[in-house]
Design brief:
With about 100 residues, this protein is mainly alpha-helical. It has a single domain, classed as Helix Hairpins (Orthogonal Bundle), CATH 1.10.287.3510. It is built from three helices and no strands. Helix 1 packs antiparallel against helix 2 (about 30-55) and helix 2 packs antiparallel against helix 3 (about 60-90). The protein is elongated. About 10% of the residues are buried.
């Protein structure tokens, strides 16, 4: 039987963080960039929960993870509202081509 330890959680967190960072750096679509940011926040949540369980921190890690989930929901709502407003104005959501807000 396999015992799931702290290293397993950290490896999953590293993989999620790397995928999120790759999505933020390489994608041109604003929605895909937002999805990458969500992956990065979820990897941080996994770290908080893992260290809360294995590090004798009590409920502090779980409370911080809950706060990050609430923050991610608010970030997604505000960011999607901004993306929809940009799409209405420019008719494009590619990050490279949105420079009309400078004017």
């Amino acid at each position: 039987m396999i015992h799931v330890g702290l290293t397993h959680f950290l490896v999953i967190s590293i993989v999620l963080f790397a995928l999120g960072l790759y999505a933020v750096i390489t994608r041109k679509n604003a929605v895909m960039v937002l999805m990458g940011i969500e992956l990065i926040l979820n990897s941080a949540n996994i770290n908080f929960i893992a260290f809360s369980k294995f590090g004798n921190f009590g409920l502090q890690g779980q409370l911080i993870a809950l706060f990050v989930i609430i923050l991610a929901a608010a970030e997604a709502a505000v960011a999607l509202a901004i993306v929809l407003n940009i799409y209405k104005t420019v008719a494009n959501i590619n990050v490279d081509e949105i420079d009309s807000l400078k004017d």
